Backbone:
């Protein structure tokens, strides 16, 4: 029983880690917390549903299209909401946070109007669970965790070894210095939005595959992603991944003990304790 | 005619109750700069405290659990208890959270308000879960529908006015100057010997008490409360009201609520639902409110009634 829930926890954590990684990368570069991130994640899940179910495209292609369009929505948020506020009224991080809360409501209600309140399921065959050591796992979940790990490795390689990755790191460390060194920081910021929101979209698809796509996904996941990111230290992408694993396992284990109604509350409690004891996160440098 | 008057009075009552929430947010964010996204939570605590205390004791079974909660205390006791309960909860969660950076506080408060809502759904022995607490007593009943609602509206307006005076007094007092100092520059205020944490706590607790009173008034206005009424949507509406009206200005807070909730949200209640598109009108309304927030932040960040700039004596 415990092993089973730890197994589910690893899967949940793996998916959460993608979203947490995206939010953390974005925060590092733009220096404010994007409150629309949960709803961007939900939008990714719904757009994929549109490609997969409404247009009848294969799931993998739909997920890819969903991810790219979610990334583009991220770029639109940057160009239509964040940049005008930064340049027009010199908005600080708190004003930008409030503005993204407005954006979150726009996305959430657009989803409600277009897709209604009923949960949606992707067009995939029913999954047969199989035994993998002490864990019970469906091929789809196995694929989800595999893709999560693959994407995280790719992001790591991107950040460490490519020119774009180096430009992203330089811009997030010190935007003025980066600009002086000839980096086109605006381009880097746009790429970061695309990447971060694309990751959110992918995480949304995977969550949708494990359960269903529904209206509450955005706000619920936002809170859990925040907990993961803060646990690992905000703006520390690798810490965010570790935080997500801890949160994912804690949530599923607590469900096994009959506390499933309060699993997001538990994520919050853990975050509160970390903020009290180590405000810079578990892996503060 | 009577139907129309009742409609107007009900909108006015809702605006007055929401104005109390906007005043609460103004004390926290407008005066002190506390980025609080948990207004809905304190609103819920007030509503549930008052509902549980004023309901008559009952022995009925709810979901197989004997529901004997309900103390039958009078309405005024319910309002005071709601304020006290919200203030107490604010004190307890303020101890760990008020030391946090602004954006962390936003995350903690929105999370806590969601936790309160989960509790209202799940702790059925106390809150009757999603079925909600019904048949709440309302003061002034038994005249006529119109007179009952008119008297209740007047009562809410009197309470709003009292809270406005308190809030205004706070703003202009030495206490208010310290709060504004914290908002503008924490380090300088601390260097002047003010205990930042202590004053933030005061603002946080006062805001909670206001929101608690609003919750209680809401519960007795609508006669029944359900957990989904306290979703983060309320917090969002209050933020937009304050931003539009003018953050830091109490009159602006009330004006913003009147414009957003009264004219825009409730005032468009007569719009018909379109067959087959149930969510179109309510959804578009919230989308428009989202755009209003962003446009207001961009083009008129000071709001309709800006906060008065402090005059500084030159010379010396």
Residues:
């Amino acid at each position: 029983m415990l092993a089973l829930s730890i197994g589910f926890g690893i899967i949940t954590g793996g998916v959460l880690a993608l979203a947490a990684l995206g939010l953390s990368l974005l925060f590092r570069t733009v220096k404010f917390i994007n409150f629309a991130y949960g709803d961007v994640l939900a939008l990714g899940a719904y757009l994929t549903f549109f490609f997969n179910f409404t247009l009848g495209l294969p799931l993998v292609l739909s997920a890819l299209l969903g991810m790219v369009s979610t990334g583009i929505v991220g770029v639109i948020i940057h160009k239509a909401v964040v940049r005008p506020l930064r340049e027009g009224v010199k908005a600080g991080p708190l004003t930008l946070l409030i503005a993204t809360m407005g954006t979150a409501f726009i996305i959430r209600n657009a989803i409600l109007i277009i897709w209604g309140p009923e949960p949606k399921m992707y067009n995939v065959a029913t999954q047969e669970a199989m035994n993998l050591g002490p864990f019970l796992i469906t091929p789809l979940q196995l694929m989800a965790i595999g893709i999560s790990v693959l994407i995280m490795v790719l992001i790591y390689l991107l950040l460490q070894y490519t020119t774009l990755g180096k430009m992203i790191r330089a811009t997030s460390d010190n935007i003025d210095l980066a600009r002086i060194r000839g980096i086109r920081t605006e381009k880097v910021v746009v790429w970061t939005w695309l990447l971060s929101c694309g990751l959110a979209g992918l995480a949304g698809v995977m969550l949708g595959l494990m359960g269903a796509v529904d209206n509450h996904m955005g706000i619920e996941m936002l809170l859990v992603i925040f907990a993961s990111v803060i646990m690992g230290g905000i703006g520390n992408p690798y810490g965010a991944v570790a935080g997500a694993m801890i949160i994912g396992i804690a949530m599923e284990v607590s469900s096994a003990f009959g506390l499933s109604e309060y699993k997001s509350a538990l994520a919050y409690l853990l975050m509160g304790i970390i903020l009290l004891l180590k405000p810079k996160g578990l892996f503060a440098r | 005619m009577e139907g129309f008057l009742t409609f107007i009075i009900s909108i006015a009552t809702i605006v007055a109750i929401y104005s109390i929430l906007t005043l609460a947010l103004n004390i926290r964010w407008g005066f002190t700069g506390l980025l609080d996204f948990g207004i809905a939570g304190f609103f819920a605590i007030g509503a549930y405290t008052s509902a549980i205390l004023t309901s008559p004791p009952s022995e009925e079974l709810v979901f197989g659990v004997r529901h004997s909660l309900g103390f039958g205390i009078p309405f005024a006791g319910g309002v005071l208890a709601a304020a006290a309960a919200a203030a107490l909860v604010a004190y307890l969660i303020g101890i760990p959270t008020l030391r946090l950076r602004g954006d962390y506080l936003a995350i903690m408060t929105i999370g806590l308000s969601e936790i309160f809502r989960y509790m209202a759904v799940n702790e059925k022995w106390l809150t009757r879960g999603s079925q909600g607490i019904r048949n709440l007593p309302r003061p002034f009943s038994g005249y006529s529908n119109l007179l009952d609602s008119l008297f209740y509206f007047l009562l809410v307006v009197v309470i709003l006015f009292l809270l406005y005076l308190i809030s205004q007094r706070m703003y202009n007092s030495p206490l208010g100057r310290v709060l504004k100092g914290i908002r503008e520059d924490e380090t300088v205020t601390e260097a002047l010997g003010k205990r930042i944490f202590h004053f933030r706590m005061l603002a946080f607790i006062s805001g909670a008490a206001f929101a608690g009173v609003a919750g209680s008034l809401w519960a007795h206005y609508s006669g029944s409360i359900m957990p989904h009424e306290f979703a983060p949507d309320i917090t969002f509406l209050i933020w937009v009201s304050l931003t539009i009206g003018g953050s830091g200005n109490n009159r602006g807070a009330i004006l913003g609520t009147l414009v957003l909730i009264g004219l825009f949200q409730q005032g468009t209640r007569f719009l018909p639902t379109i067959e087959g598109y149930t969510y179109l009108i309510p959804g578009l309304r919230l989308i428009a409110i989202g755009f209003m927030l962003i446009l207001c932040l961009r083009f008129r960040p000071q709001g309709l009634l800006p906060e008065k700039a402090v005059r500084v004596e030159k010379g010396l």
Remarks:
- Chain B has a mean pLDDT of 89.
- The two ends of chain B are 65 Å apart (CA to CA).
- Strands of chain B lie at 61-62, 65-66.
